[in-house]
Write a structure and sequence with these properties.
Largest sheet: 6 strands, mixed
CATH topology of the largest domain: Immunoglobulin-like
Shape: rod-shaped
CATH architecture of the largest domain: Sandwich
Number of domains: 3
Distance between the termini: 163 Å
Helix content: 25-40%
Mean pLDDT: 74
Low-confidence stretches: 1-41, 43-62, 79-121
Number of strands: 10
Order of helices and strands: HHHHHHHEEEEEEEEEE
Strand content: 15-25%
Structural class: alpha+beta
Length: 406
């Protein structure tokens, strides 16, 4: 047995030996006077050899105080221990007091390492024991489960997709109008989009610089688009859109030049579209030479202007025109002016704007005109808009009546 491992046995035996020694000493004193017997406790304190196992007969008499002193010294020496390098000292365990046992004769009290130790014995040269594995701290894994996904948004309806596309197209057209050399075209397209998808046009006027004519056209078209939009959204008869279309036409006609939609040489005129035209030969009028020539010039006009006017204390609309007639003889090199009728002023007043308009002018040509081809040039001027319209009416002067039968 290793000397260090016998120390707990000695410490456990010491109290029992003390009690036994006391009892035996008293017995011996009461019976007979015997020589003093060494109980071995002095030997324990000295460097002498240990007693044989179980021998207590020769232990000297010791007082209880000496035994307590030795036990206290042994307790103090038990606090000294040797720990192996890099190893934490073991935590002392609280155990029940060991029962008294006989002293271990193998205890080497001469060794400087033979010290009392009430805890687990350990020596530097002992075989290293397997260290108790220390459990690593267990870290609870964080809850890596993500939040449940948000419910998917419902797919847009066809109407919602159409509305989004219309507004995107409207923004594109507005941007194009800002940099287009002719922005009125983009604004007209934008107005058409407003009819299909209300709200695309917006409430504000587009901040685009345009000539007055183009600006007026854009304004009239915007008015028409919003009017049609409102009619389609209401319970109105869709045919009522014709009224809006007519108002749009009237507003735009103010910026369109006047035109002569038709012109004829007639013998009689009873009203708009009601006239009797001179006979034609191969789509041309023919007259006999050396005779006076008379006819009525009938012309239907379109895109003429109306202006507000008052006549006889009544308010209405006035059309103010002028008409000029010139006759040209067609030559091989150039046409020659042979007759002219100066400007004739034409004024018409009505409580309502006229939709149909025609002009009349009687023409009397001299009999001195020679045989050949002629062109009558009709020029109409709109005095309100300064527009001008022209029309050529060809005819021939022939030498005999045979040409009038073809």
């Amino acid at each position: 047995m290793h000397p260090r491992r016998s120390l707990p046995v000695l410490l456990a035996v010491t109290p029992a030996l003390a009690i036994a020694a006391g009892c035996q000493t008293g017995s011996q004193r009461s019976t007979a006077q015997t020589p003093t017997v060494n109980t071995g406790l002095d030997q324990v304190a000295s460097d002498g050899p240990a007693f044989p196992r179980g021998s207590v007969a020769g232990m000297p008499e010791q007082s209880t105080e000496e035994l307590l002193a030795l036990m206290e010294e042994a307790q103090q020496n038990a606090s000294v221990s040797v720990a192996e390098p890099d190893q934490a000292p073991a935590t002392p365990a609280i155990t029940a007091a060991p029962q008294a046992t006989q002293a271990d004769p193998t205890l080497d009290t001469t060794s400087p390492d033979a010290q009392s130790n009430t805890g687990p014995s350990m020596a530097i040269d002992d075989a290293p024991s397997t260290p108790t594995p220390v459990a690593e701290p267990i870290e609870l894994a964080e809850d890596t489960e993500s939040d449940p996904p948000a419910p998917a948004e419902p797919e847009p309806t066809p109407r919602e997709r159409a509305e989004a596309g219309a507004h995107e197209l409207g923004s594109f057209l507005r941007a194009e109008a800002a940099f287009s050399p002719m922005p009125v075209s983009e604004l007209v397209r934008l107005g058409a989009l407003e009819i299909a998808h209300p709200g695309v046009l917006g409430e504000d006027e587009p901040g685009v610089s345009m000539p007055p004519r183009d600006e007026e056209i854009a304004t009239e078209w915007r008015t028409f688009a919003t009017a049609v939009r409102d009619r389609l959204d209401s319970a109105d008869d869709p045919a009522a859109i014709a009224d809006d279309a007519r108002a749009l036409a009237d507003g735009l006609d103010a910026w369109r030049p006047i035109i002569i939609s038709s012109a004829h040489l007639c013998t009689r005129v009873d009203g708009f579209g009601n006239f009797r035209e001179l006979p034609t030969f191969n789509d041309e009028h023919r007259f006999l030479a050396a005779r006076p020539i008379s006819f009525i010039v009938y012309a239907e006009l379109d895109r003429f202007s109306h202006t507000s006017a008052s006549r006889d204390s009544e308010w209405g609309y006035e059309v103010a025109l002028s008409m000029d007639l010139r006759l040209y003889h067609v030559g091989s090199d150039a046409d020659a002016l042979v007759w002219r009728k100066p400007d004739q002023l034409i004024t018409d007043f009505s409580r309502r704007q006229r939709r149909d308009f025609f002009v009349l002018q009687r023409v009397d040509l001299p009999a001195t005109l020679g045989v050949g081809s002629y062109r009558l040039k009709l020029t109409i001027k709109d005095r309100a808009s300064a527009g001008v319209a022209e029309r050529l009416i060809p005819f021939e002067i022939v030498a005999n009546t045979a040409a009038l039968r073809e």
